[in-house]
Amino acid sequence: MRRPPFHSCALADAATLPCVTARTIIDSTVLSGIGSPPLPLSERPGETSQFKGSRVNATRGTLGHATASLLGEGMAFLRRQQRDWKVTVVRTSLDKFAYQMVFPYLSIYIVALGATGTQLGIVNSIGMIVAGFCGPFTGGLIDRIGPKKIYLTGIGCMAISYLTFSLARHWELTIVAMIGYWLGYATSIHSCATICGNCLVNRDRATGMLLCETVAAGLLGVAGPMLAAWLVALGGGVTIGGIRPLFVSGLLVTLGTFAIVLTQLSERTWAHVGNSRPHLARDIAQVFRGGKYLKRWVAISAITQLPLGMVFPYTQVFAHSIKGANEFILGAMVTGSAVASIVCAIPLGRLADRIGRKRVLYITIPLFWLSNLMLVIAPSPAFLLIAGILQGFFFIGGPIASAIERELVPPDQMGRWLGINRFFRMVLSAILALTAGIVWDKIGPQYLFLAFVAVDLLI
Predict the structure, then answer these.
(1) Does residue 129 sit within a domain?
(2) Which domain range does residue 454 map to?
(3) pTM of this prediction?
(4) Per-block average pLDDT, block size 10, for the chain (459 residues)?
(5) How many domains does the chain have?
(6) CATH number where 182 lies
(7) Which pairs count as long-range contacts for 380-387, CB under 8 Å and 24+ apart, including other chains?
(8) Is 3 inside a domain boundary?
């Protein structure tokens, strides 16, 4: 929502107020000094101290009032949200905790099992393609039977993924695990996004999504990599044996989130599609007939998700194998990313709701470019930490873009619309994941990150 313009009289008053105040103070000071003897020196410090004390008290009062106002606004925001949205916030936060434990070491683990850069790309691309092709079907099912059953199916796939990773002895088995992860992630986040998009009103949407995906999840996202670094160090460092227990922890947390969704989420649906059978082509055509900008948004949405396949699978491997980062630096990079999300999410979310989502994206996207450049040139661990912090702005920009996406279609088409977007995003990310692996092996690891910045700039 745009801020209304100030009235011209108000601007005039604001402009003249400092001058009038200054003149009044000067006149009163001069007049009060006429015919009055100067104060003794012994009395002057006491007066100065009293004046300073009043200023400090006034400042404290202002800060206290601002803090109370902010807390009151936050509590009012939470009270007006629906229960299903709050359940998804809890589940997303716990899922982020589990993933943040594993993420710093996932690609390193696959490479340690024998995969090359190209094979690492194959592992990710196969999982993304499977998840992408299931997206439109998942969306249609969500619109017909509601998100809860699909949500539970996705969480179950993620549990199988963590179990398979923990049992893997060769990199080939991680293909099965990665299919389970991407399918489970895409399905569960699809259901979560449908609930979020339909439960939040427009004025709260960007703030609510950022609160869910960055602040609430970010708080546990800070704890996850710190705990993981400690566990890896106890297990002998960044080795297969040191990393493997993290997948067991992820499995236990995921089973806990399954129980939460099963017992706490309602069976609510938003679509009224009758008893007609799902028809992929007809459903896609029906969604696209709803707005002239939808096809353009599909292209924009796919492009904004390039890092999923091109950057994130290789960031930690690059930091470890090329820059020599140990388990604590790897964990600190992910922690820094989560901290950036916590600190900046709410201010940027409110700013996006006021001045427009697109303008805020113009702030976050260049900061993510800078993260990739810092990673490449990093001469010391401090630069790696800065790169990790700046990487957090991608996770802030993502929910803001998603807030735009959820405002383009009515609630009864939300599941299918998100499924269509996920199909194109995943397929493009899969192609780029494989391409990135080839660049890593044939040209050089650093050119992978430089190429992403160049491509994003051109687009």
Answers:
(1) yes
(2) 86-264+281-458
(3) 0.74
(4) 38 36 38 43 47 52 62 69 82 89 95 95 93 81 83 94 96 96 89 78 70 67 89 93 95 96 84 55 70 76 81 93 93 89 77 76 86 94 94 78 73 76 86 92 93 83
(5) 1
(6) 1.20.1250.20
(7) 381/323, 381/325, 381/329, 384/319, 384/323, 384/325, 384/329, 384/333, 385/329, 385/332, 385/333, 385/336, 386/336, 387/333
(8) no
